[in-house]
Each structure stands twice: as structure tokens, then as C-alpha cells.
């Protein structure tokens, strides 16, 4: 049974559309750390995640990794390249073992399902709005505010209730968090220490426990 994240591509499809998507593709899996898609490659296939989480990233000319997004079950990946024929704009890396449906002729699938094409347009618009919001954050928030914002997002999307808070069960390193907030690793470490000192979070290797989500939201704002 697939449990897509609310609002993701797969969550918007009917059971019949999902069956047709499966018929148009094939199932494939990747181990944690594997590269699913490479920035700059030209390919016409897309991936719809059915389990596991990935990061979408790009690299600057100096080699610095910039994390563009974290995607989970139900997400559609590679659609822009499949639609316009241009090279992929980001690298997709498995943060944990992932599995998904690989669809080779995605434009053909959309031609057969006009409703899904309209849904995809809305999904792309939502991504653009999210990108605009993040650009505003980079200009308006300090590093602590940006880190708090990302932790709130992770807690809301992937949090698991535990005694004393919400545990973020996602293998995201401080380097990756730095790449996601547009800050240095040192600045992110300082921001995490500030949030720990205020009793809002507890950190460990590849995990974060949020003790006061509402107060963390206030820091994010």
C-alpha cells in the first residue's frame, strides 16, 4: 500500500490513474546514497516515488552543494526535463532506500490523461511559489531563522511523536542542512546550538528532536 505525502503528485491521482501509471512504467529501487538522477543529463524518463526520501541538489562552480528540496513518497521527479527536453537542473540522491515507478514516455501518459496534465501544471506553480518564498527567507531571515524554518518543515512532514516532542526521522547531515538553508556548516552549527540552548531542540547523529514546535515556529517567523 502506497502512502503518498499529502499534496504530492501521486496523492492527487485516482486509483485508475495510478493503475495506468504503473502500466506505463516499471518499478525500480535505489540504495541509500545512490544517485537517482544526475544534474546536466538529458533524459526523457520520470520517477514517481512510492517509498523513501531523496534530496534534490545542485552544485555551484566552486563545488558547494545547494539543496533545493527534500522529496518523499508520492513525489514526481524529472518532469521538467521530460517535458522540455532540456538537461536536468538538479541531482537526485537517495537519503534512504527508495523505490518508485519509472515512466519512460511521460508526455504520452499526460496526453492520455488531460486531468493529470492540469494537476501537474498546478503542482509546478506550487513549486515556483515555494521557491519564491525561500528566496524571500534568504534575504529576510538570519541563519537561525532559516534553520528553524527548515526544521519546522521537516517536523511537520516527517516528524514522529516521541516522549517530550517530535523526532525528525530523516538522515540529513549538518552539511546538507547548510546546503538547504544557504549557509555555511559553521553558521548552521551555531544556529542549532542556539536553538538547543533555548530548549527548543535536541540533536544527535542524523536526528533532531523538536521539544517545542510552536516556539520553533515563532523563531521561524
Question: How does this structure look, described?
Answer:
- The radius of gyration is 18 Å and the shape is globular.
- The protein is α+β, with helices and mostly antiparallel strands and 221 residues long.
- It has eight helices and twelve strands.
- 43% of the residues lie in helices and 25% in strands.
- It has a four-stranded antiparallel sheet. A four-stranded antiparallel sheet has the order 2-7-4-5. Strands 9-10-12-11 form a four-stranded antiparallel sheet.
Strand residue content:
25-35%
Largest sheet: 4 strands, antiparallel
User: How large, in whole angstroms, is the Cα Rg?
Assistant: 18 Å
Instruction: Find the count of extended strands (DSSP E, 2+ residues).
Output: 12
Kindly state the percentage of residues in helix.
40-55%
Lateral arrangement of strands in the main beta sheet: 1-8-3-6
- Elements, N to C (H/E): HEEEEEEHEEHHHEEHHEEH
Shape: globular
Number of helices: 8
State the end-to-end distance: 37 Å
- The unreliable regions are none
**Secondary structural class:** alpha+beta
**What is the typical, i.e. mean, pLDDT?**
91
Amino acid at each position: 500500500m502506497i502512502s503518498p505525502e499529502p499534496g504530492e503528485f501521486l496523492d492527487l491521482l485516482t486509483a485508475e490513474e495510478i493503475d495506468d501509471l504503473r502500466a506505463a512504467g516499471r518499478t525500480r529501487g535505489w540504495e541509500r546514497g545512490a544517485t537517482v538522477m544526475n544534474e546536466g543529463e538529458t533524459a526523457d524518463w520520470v520517477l514517481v516515488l512510492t517509498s523513501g526520501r531523496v534530496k534534490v541538489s545542485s552544485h555551484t562552480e566552486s563545488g558547494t552543494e545547494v539543496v533545493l528540496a527534500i522529496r518523499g513518497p508520492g513525489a514526481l521527479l524529472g518532469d521538467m526535463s521530460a517535458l522540455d527536453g532540456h538537461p536536468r537542473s538538479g541531482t537526485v540522491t537517495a537519503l534512504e532506500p527508495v523505490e518508485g515507478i519509472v515512466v519512460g514516455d511521460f508526455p504520452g501518459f499526460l496526453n492520455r490523461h488531460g486531468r493529470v496534465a492540469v494537476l501537474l501544471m498546478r503542482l509546478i506553480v506550487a513549486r515556483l511559489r515555494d521557491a519564491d518564498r525561500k528566496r524571500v527567507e534568504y534575504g529576510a531571515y538570519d541563519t537561525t531563522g532559516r534553520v528553524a524554518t527548515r526544521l519546522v518543515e521537516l517536523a511537520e512532514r516527517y516528524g514522529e511523536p516521541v516522549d517530550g516532542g517530535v523526532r525528525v526521522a530523516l538522515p540529513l547531515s549538518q552539511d546538507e542542512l547548510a546546503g538547504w538553508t544557504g549557509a555555511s556548516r559553521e553558521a548552521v552549527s551555531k544556529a542549532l546550538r542556539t536553538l538547543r540552548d533555548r530548549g527548543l531542540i535536541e540533536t544527535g547523529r542524523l536526528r533532531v528532536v523538536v521539544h517545542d514546535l510552536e516556539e520553533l515556529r515563532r523563531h521561524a517567523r
